[in-house]
Known about the structure:
Elements: E1 2-6, E2 11-24, E3 27-32, E4 38-42, E5 45-51, E6 64-66, E7 73-78, E8 81-86, E9 89-94
Parallel strand pairs: 1-9
Antiparallel strand pairs: 1-2, 2-3, 2-5, 4-8, 5-7, 6-7, 8-9
Amino acid sequence: MQLEIITPEAEIFVGEADAVQFPGADGSFQVLNKHAPVIAALTKGDVKVDLTNAFETENANDKITVDGSNNKVIRIAIKGGVIEMQNNKVIVLAE
């Protein structure tokens, strides 16, 4: 699935993911490839992204942390926001 994580200041991440775990307002939840459409509120926490391919360091910024044991897993800290999943595309508007 295509994933975009955007803040008011910048585009944090754009790429392909197999699974994404979110800190939801009602608890953490995960979306997988071909997930049903969903809109949900997010709280402060980490977005954990299981990438389709290994993370390329030229795409790195100070908001992205690569899992030390697996370069196909990244984490992005957010302060809250909203997620929309539709047509196998996830858009995260984060703070």
